[in-house]
Amino acid sequence: MMQAKISVEVFFDFICPWCLIGKRQLHAAIEKLKQTHPQIQVAIKWRGVQLLPSIPVDGIPFKAFYLQRLGTTTAVRMRQEQVRQAAKAVGVDIDFERIPRMPNTAKAHSLLSNALQLAAPSQYDLLLEGIFSAYFHHSENISDPAVLQKIATYCGYAEAPIKALLDEPNTPFISVNTGGKGVPYFVFDGAFALAGAQPAAMLYQALLEAFEAQGAEV
């Protein structure tokens, strides 16, 4: 059986719950693909997007941010409940009441974008999950280098190179632009894209279409 490879670029930000939901949906789609088309390998490339680059380095109060953004406490409650239900459907529990601050994500993106050269891809995914979890599940401030150091160490990274990355004031990180499409934003083989936290079934279909586009038979 001939092996095939599909690349998926995922544009995301750590503060976006739909990105965490989209990550779960994508992995569910890939698991289904493994069952139906085991000859296809999927390579995921995570592309950091800083949605709110103007937020101060130490972040801003979470509740105040959303109140200003949506206008009323009712609007905030309705939006958060919508997200909670979508997250619950993919096995993710998000408690917005426990999150104290909306962080600046530049440092977290810098860490992730440079971490791939320090360890195996499996550790990279652990780090990605760890940062998401620290923010949405443990209410930690992911703009704090000490928090990021703790996460990376827990994920098995050597302490010294991570500290060196975090100590750099301008660690290379390019915040990419999705052309107003927002995040999450999925690009398949550089050819076509899906915007938003799409259902696993739709992402699975997109993977098959990318496979077909390579001239292969499904």
UniProtKB/TrEMBL annotation:
Residue span(s) of domain DSBA-like thioredoxin: 8-207
CDD domains: DsbA_FrnE
GO MF annotation: an example: oxidoreductase activity
InterPro entries: DSBA-like_thioredoxin_dom, Thioredoxin-like_sf
Domain of life: Bacteria
Gene3D superfamilies linked: Glutaredoxin
UniProt-listed PANTHER family: GLUTATHIONE S-TRANSFERASE KAPPA (PTHR13887), THIOREDOXIN SUPERFAMILY PROTEIN (PTHR13887:SF41)
Protein name stated in the entry: DSBA-like thioredoxin domain-containing protein
Source organism (scientific name): Acinetobacter bouvetii DSM 14964 = CIP 107468
Lineage: Bacteria, Pseudomonadati, Pseudomonadota, Gammaproteobacteria, Moraxellales
